[in-house]
Amino acid sequence: MSLRPSDAFSPTASAPGTADPLTALRRATQTRHARLDAHLPLAQPDASLRDYALHAQALSGWLAALAPELQALQSQAPGFTFDDPARLAALQADLRDTGLPLAPPAPSAATQQALRQARPAAPDRHAAFRWGLAYVVEGSQLGGQVLHRRLAPRLAPHPLRYLQGSGGSGAGVRWREFVERLRGEFAAVPPEAMEAACAGACAAFDGLESDLRAAGAPL
User: Fold this and answer.
1) Among 54, 73, 134, 213, which is least packed, fewest CB within 10 Å?
2) SS3 193
3) C-alpha dist (Å) from residue 166 to 11, 64, 142, 144, 152
4) What's the pLDDT tens digit per position in 5-35?
5) Under a CB-based contact definition with an 8 Å cutoff, are residues 203 and 125 in contact?
6) Greatest extent of the chain over all pairs of C-alpha atoms, in Å
7) CA gap 34, 179 in Å, rounded
8) What is the gyration radius of the CA atoms in the chain, in angstroms?
9) Using one digit for the tens of pLDDT, what is the confidence trace for 37-86?
């Protein structure tokens, strides 16, 4: 997988300069996030059930590739379910309910490659790298809620389980808990740790973009 020239991660440009890890992660990924928001087929006014099926298949492979990293983070930061099995279960149920002949999703090779390319060489930075991955996964749950509100009437009676997530205020509560933990984790760390987290977040976006592009998204 080759990155766009404008996407090459530059820690010195993106990560230091702020003491708040949430702000640093947002700055590091803003170009990728904006492109995804602008070109995601599921976010377009004419989004169809097939668009959702392809989206769900891409996300299944993406999450399956990230699962080992999130499980490792979960062992390092107990008390929060970073690798929530309900996500993949919801995606698989949603795929079955579309009735479309799609191949069973497997862990994404493109996402695995993105992680290998971006992973810090120093083992003591791996946990920070995983926090960056988790930032993108948790943020995607909030985006899913927005898509659910737009698409539920259009694609009914499909339940859109994955997009619905926790429903109601559940996603917001989970996000606030995650951000609190993130800020606590990075309250007193060297700049290299924040750089590793930003590299992880960018790698998660790069893997997702590759998976969605393979599913037909014009990214």
Assistant:
1) 213
2) helix
3) 34, 20, 10, 10, 15
4) 334 444 434 444 457 999 999 999 999 999 9
5) no
6) 50
7) 21
8) 17
9) 999 999 999 999 999 999 999 999 999 999 999 999 999 888 899 999 99
